[in-house]
Amino acid sequence: MATLPRITANELLQVSVVGQIVGGTELGDGASGSAHCNWRLVAQPGWKHLFGEVAGASQSDMPDTSQSDMPESTMYVWCHPLDACFECENVRAQEAWPRLELEVRWRDIYDRSDLEGYGVVSVPPLPGVHQLVCRLWRPRGSMRERFVAYVMGGRPHLKNNGLVFGVAEEMENGSKQLARAVGERRLLTEPAGTVHISLAVCVQRKLKPDTD
């Protein structure tokens, strides 16, 4: 079993992420339209962003699904580059690696822009080239909201994008788990497609500069 990179109190852990958001599949329920992906790289407390972009949006792609026997499998090609570097000097934070949060938007043939789905995937903690698959989800909404979205567009969406990753809720036994909502009012969700990501991860351990 591979060992995760770890640091001591006098070391820094530097992580470089280079790759691309390749594209999406199973989007738009097989209908004609275009899609693009908004993204952001999120670092936890104890990590510092050194350089590179940490948020952006891909191009919009509209493939021809009319000639496909399985339009839901059509790839929406984005090939959007990712290139950023982070540094961790907190020994306790070294297991909470940066993550990539996604929001895919769909534009139909009537030029209406709507939410397609949210997704989150952690940067792999091991060096090398990784092919990642991020499953998207979206709020399900009530029966009325789903009917209105089907006829008029405008799917239910999050007011607080912090819920894309989830918030920590304390359980009765004292443990904590990530939830889409806190308390009795749970957020019902449904699957909303897939995003394909290619990432090359470079990990370096360095001694902290001598401050004497």
UniProtKB/TrEMBL annotation:
Biological process annotations from GO: cilium assembly
Domain of life assignment: Eukaryota
Cellular compartments per GO CC: MKS complex
Main location: cytoplasm
Keywords attached to this entry: Cell projection, Cilium biogenesis/degradation, Cytoplasm, Cytoskeleton
Subcellular location: Cytoplasm, Cytoskeleton, Cilium basal body
Protein name: B9 domain-containing protein 2
